[in-house]
Write a structure and sequence with these properties.
The protein is 36% helix and 23% strand. The chain is an alpha/beta fold. The protein has a four-stranded mixed sheet with strand order 1-5-6-7, covered by helices on one side. Strands 2-3-4 form a three-stranded antiparallel sheet. Strand 5 (33-38), helix 1 and strand 6 form a beta-alpha-beta unit. The longest helix has 25 residues, at 94-118. 8% of the residues are buried.
Length: 142
């Protein structure tokens, strides 16, 4: 099962050789890759690279000038686990969507407090307290 998400933030030439992604002197087996985020305007990819990603069900994302995802390349319908997940998320009931969003916001708050704790910055415990104030669907915008 793919588990690696690759973020490319510098000018690189991405290519596939022997069923491995070759990038910056590293080789990563395609079967280990879940997604690749391309976050630099000078990254070079070939049609063969995109084709091989599609064959291995690897989502490829590009970003805009503000580093926000702007495009996503997936394998064709019926072959993509990413597309089936997207369909599941779209068809989820409103209560389920709100509960999931609540959990996402809680986890983001927790991650922020952990970062402050690791950096030994005071106030991480105060931020952690906000987790209990998150409402379903984050209607309070904690």
């Amino acid at each position: 099962m793919p588990y690696k998400n690759i973020l490319v933030q510098s000018a690189q030439r991405l290519h596939v050789h022997n069923n491995c992604l070759e990038i910056g002197g590293s080789r990563i087996p395609l079967e280990d890759i879940n997604a690749i985020m391309l976050d630099h305007p000078a990254i070079l990819v070939s049609v063969d690279f995109v084709k091989r990603c599609a064959q291995n069900d690897i989502a490829v994302y590009t970003t805009d000038d503000q580093h926000i995802p702007s495009a996503m390349f997936l394998s064709m319908p019926g072959k993509s686990k990413h597309l089936s997940m997207l369909r599941f998320q779209i068809s989820a009931s409103k209560p389920l969507s709100k509960r999931m969003w609540k959990r996402i916001v809680e986890q983001k708050i927790h991650n922020q407090s952990l970062c402050l704790k690791m950096l030994e910055i005071d106030g991480w415990t105060d931020i952690e307290l906000y987790r209990r104030d998150v409402l379903s669907g984050d209607s309070s915008h904690v």
